[in-house]
């Protein structure tokens, strides 16, 4: 290996996903010497394998779903789904998985980019092993920012390792729709992609070890999405633990502990994601390699471990944003923390991080939007809780939409005179979530929400109905 080059930039950003790219670019704009490092594509999972291409698939599938609703409402239609234009749009959106435009965007702002793996190797020291085999030692003068993102995790099911299973990355890249798909995991990724492929012509089976789909959301959300997926033709198996996986003759077999054998051409593993602590040298910070998160303060600065890694023992500050912080594996979380980190490094002050109103959306049809605490979470925290649920079907807009397209509800969770959580499930549930996120974030009193004029006839009037129920309770 060639001798290591040594450089002393102002800031090193490890991971150039949405948050890391934003931090690196804005600090470069401010005149700092910034080096961004990533072994994968600049822009991260979201534009290439996550948010954008998956929602392109979902959008196409939603059009098919809308066509299914025409009978009884607007005539007769025959739908012949075609996956090829979907795959073509995905390739266009990802530039065929080429990040040249993103790299040029960053370097055009004055930053420097190294393609390779970065590892903390000492106090204030980052060693980068480039994809070209060159090693570079970076000794930043001001800051290190950990924005590593996460990667798909694989459950330790006997027989799974070594098979050609898919993660979201392989599914997004496929140009041919499989005849059948087994989905291991009943969270957002598995359900979004599973429903999309079912509607586009693939026979989908979802297998979830927990007692219900979307186990971290309200039980009403789980019931709704299970009912809708089943109506679409998806086979749903909850409370199902796998004994082993087999792959032979081009097909997967899932052998379940309670006796079922489930078969499919392809297997999507969507059981969660993990942060590669072992690869980034987290031990240098006193963080075990098997830790799930890096602890941070309200300015996203990494908190030291007493007796192991005192913060004052490092010559530069270390910040962390995104999945690695455990505050929510969402693009919007990394962007939120990126802004706080940039302001902290530049000494600009501003509001500290607050995590009581983190929004999240599962882009099934209907969409499941949620913010803050679920009713169960709030009760587990010992809060005095009141909850109200309003069905969209009971609203005027729900009647207008018709029985085949008005599935959904509004659920509000209050403690005292403010909302601590809310769910908006239904058509454009993610868009309706915006006003609920504001209400939870700003702690708007229920009395103020009750005095709001809600436009008619809209789905969001259901929020007013639920608020009125809370006020009267």
Describe the structure using short key phrases.
473 residues; alpha/beta; 5-stranded antiparallel beta sheet; 15 helices
Short description:
This protein has helices at residues 18-29, 45-49, 51-68, 83-93, 100-107, 168-173, 188-199, 219-232, 277-280, 331-345, 375-380, 396-401, 429-441, 446-450, 461-472, and strands at residues 5-7, 11-14, 34-38, 112-122, 125-130, 135-138, 143-146, 151-152, 180-184, 203-207, 235-237, 242-248, 251-256, 261-264, 266-269, 273-274, 317-320, 359-362, 367-372, 386-391, 409-415, 418-426. It is α/β, with parallel strands linked by helices.
Query: What is the typical, i.e. mean, pLDDT?
Result: 95
Output the structural class. Answer: alpha/beta
- In angstroms, what is the radius of gyration? 24 Å
Spatial strand arrangement across the major sheet: 1-6-5-4-3-2-7-17
Descriptive account of the structure:
The protein is an alpha/beta fold. It contains 15 helices and 22 strands. Strands 1-6-5-4-3-2-7-17 form an 8-stranded mixed beta sheet. It has a 5-stranded antiparallel beta sheet with strand order 18-19-22-21-20, sandwiched between helices. A 4-stranded parallel beta sheet has the order 11-10-9-15. Helix 1 links the parallel strand 2 and strand 3. The longest helix has 18 residues. It is globular and about 70 Å long. The N and C termini lie far apart (71 Å). The mean pLDDT is 95. It holds the Pfam family Pyr_redox_dim. One of its GO terms (molecular function) is NAD(P)H dehydrogenase (quinone) activity.
């Amino acid at each position: 290996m060639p001798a290591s080059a040594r450089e002393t930039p102002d800031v090193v950003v490890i991971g150039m996903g949405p948050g890391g790219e934003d931090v690196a670019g804005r600090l470069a704009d401010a005149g700092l010497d910034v080096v961004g490092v990533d072994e994968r594509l600049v822009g991260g999972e979201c534009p290439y394998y996550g948010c954008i291409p998956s929602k392109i698939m979902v959008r196409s599938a939603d059009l098919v779903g809308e066509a299914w609703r025409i009978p009884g409402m607007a005539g007769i239609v025959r739908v012949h789904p075609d996956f090829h234009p979907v795959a073509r749009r995905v390739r266009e959106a990802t530039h065929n998985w080429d990040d040249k435009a993103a790299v040029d965007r960053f370097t055009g702002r004055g930053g420097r980019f190294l393609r390779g793996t970065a590892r903390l190797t000492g106090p204030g020291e980052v060693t980068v092993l480039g994809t070209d085999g060159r090693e570079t030692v970076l000794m930043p003068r001001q800051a290190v920012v950990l924005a590593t993102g996460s990667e798909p995790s694989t459950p330790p099911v006997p027989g799974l390792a070594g098979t050609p299973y898919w993660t979201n990355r392989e599914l997004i890249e496929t140009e041919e729709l499989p005849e059948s798909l087994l989905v291991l995991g009943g969270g957002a990724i598995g359900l979004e992609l599973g429903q999309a492929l079912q509607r586009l012509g693939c026979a989908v089976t979802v297998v979830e070890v927990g007692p219900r789909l979307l186990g971290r959301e309200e039980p009403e959300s789980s019931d709704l999405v299970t009912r809708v997926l089943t109506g679409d033709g998806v086979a749903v198996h909850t409370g199902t633990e796998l004994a082993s996986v087999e792959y032979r003759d081009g097909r997967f077999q899932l052998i379940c502990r309670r006796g079922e054998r489930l078969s499919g051409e392809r297997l999507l593993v969507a059981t969660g994601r993990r942060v590669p602590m072992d690869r980034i040298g987290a031990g240098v910070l006193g963080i075990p390699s098997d830790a799930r998160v890096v602890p941070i303060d309200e300015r996203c600065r990494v908190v030291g471990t007493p007796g192991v890694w005192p913060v004052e023992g490092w010559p530069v500050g270390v910040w962390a944003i995104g999945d690695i912080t455990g505050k929510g594996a969402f693009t919007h979380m990394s962007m939120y923390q990126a802004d706080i980190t940039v302001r902290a490094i530049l000494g600009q002050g501003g509001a500290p991080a607050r995590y009581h109103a983190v929004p999240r959306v599962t882009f099934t049809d209907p969409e499941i939007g949620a913010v803050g605490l679920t009713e169960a979470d709030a009760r587990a925290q010992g809060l005095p809780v009141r909850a109200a649920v309003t069905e969209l079907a009971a609203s005027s807009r729900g009647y207008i939409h018709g029985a085949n397209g008005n599935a959904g509800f509004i659920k509000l969770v209050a403690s005292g005179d403010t909302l601590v959580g809310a769910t908006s499930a239904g058509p454009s549930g993610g868009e309706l979530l915006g006003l609920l996120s504001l209400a939870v974030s700003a702690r708007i009193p229920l009395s103020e929400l009750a005095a709001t004029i809600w436009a008619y006839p809209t789905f969001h009037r259901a929020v007013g109905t639920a608020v009125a129920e809370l006020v009267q309770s």
